[in-house]
Design brief:
Potassium Channel Kv1.1, Chain A; 31% strand; alpha+beta; 288 residues; 9 helices; five-stranded antiparallel beta sheet; AtSIBP1-like; BTB domain-containing protein
Length: 288
């Protein structure tokens, strides 16, 4: 079993696998190496081959598995597997314990090849606070940004963040005034922050995710921080790699730094592409 044309983009991994069965070495078990996806999990393919009673009849069982790299992150990952050649369409697995999942057991060929694509994501969890998201009568706190403010429930803030809990339960000015002013962020970022606390949703744009990561890091909301990192690494390009590294350094988010470096090491992002983009930016600044 040979693996070629390995393509890693964001949260997806694409492998071209060729199988050549030699009757002199059957039955056999073959396993690919571990391939990292988004610095969050590793993915593998396993092949078990036996020879049938009839001449040149082979039975092939194909399995996949993925293992979460960071056991302490308390997130549940799903993986979606596709392969046109194996007639697999959006086969989902909600597991990260390393279990081998059978995806094909009806291949009776000696030599064949197939392309398999694995896409990893975070399983959204139902949030009981969703009914309070649009409530305006019971809100008792305010977050004020650079261009506006949002209303929110004090108890929700305290439940989400140990920093905010200490602030709101003590004799701080913010607790007395029932608001936090002069937040160095936009009203849109604060709305995204509220949306996550009540609905568990995240924005799609990388700039919005970066602003949300700042709030998550400052207020020590670990689950939000991890989810922002996961999505940002999934959107990494040669154009934004240096900016993300700078943000990770400023916030001292080591996991984001390591995830970006792993993307470079695994070849998801090429150093030459980053260099070319940086030179182009420098040339553009000089021309101004």
């Amino acid at each position: 079993m040979e693996v070629s044309n390995i393509i890693q983009t964001g949260n997806s991994l694409k492998l071209n696998i060729s199988v050549s069965n030699n009757s002199g070495y059957l039955p056999t078990v073959r396993t690919t190496k571990e391939f990292k996806i988004n610095a969050a999990a590793v993915f593998q393919v396993k092949l078990i081959v036996t020879k049938g009673e009839k001449h040149n009849t082979y039975y092939n069982w194909i399995y996949v598995r993925f293992v979460k790299l960071h056991k302490e992150d308390d997130l549940t990952y799903t993986i979606k597997v596709n392969s046109k050649e194996l007639n697999i369409t959006d086969k989902n697995f909600i597991s990260d314990d390393g279990t081998w999942h059978l995806v094909q057991d009806n291949i009776k060929q000696q030599n064949y090849s197939f392309i398999v694509t694995a896409h990893i994501d975070i399983t959204p969890s139902a949030c009981p606070l969703a009914l309070l998201h649009d409530d305006t009568e019971l809100t008792d706190f305010e977050l004020k940004g650079e261009d506006g403010s949002i209303s929110i429930h004090r108890a929700v803030l305290a439940a989400a963040s140990p920093v905010l809990k200490a602030m709101l339960s003590g004799k701080w000015q913010e607790s007395t005034d029932a608001k936090i002013e002069k937040l160095d962020t936009s009203k849109a970022a604060l709305q995204n922050f509220k949306d996550y606390l009540y609905l568990g949703t995240l924005p799609y744009a990388d700039l919005e995710l970066e602003q949300l990561l700042v709030l998550a890091s400052y207020y020590m909301i670990k689950d939000l921080e991890q989810k922002c990192i996961f999505k940002l690494v999934g959107m990494i390009t040669a154009e934004n790699t240096c900016d993300l590294l700078e943000i990770a350094g400023q916030l001292k988010v080591r996991r984001l730094q390591l995830a970006i470096l792993e993307c470079v090491e695994e070849g998801v992002i090429k150093v030459d592409d980053i260099r070319i983009h940086s030179l182009d930016c420098e040339s553009g600044e000089e021309s101004l």
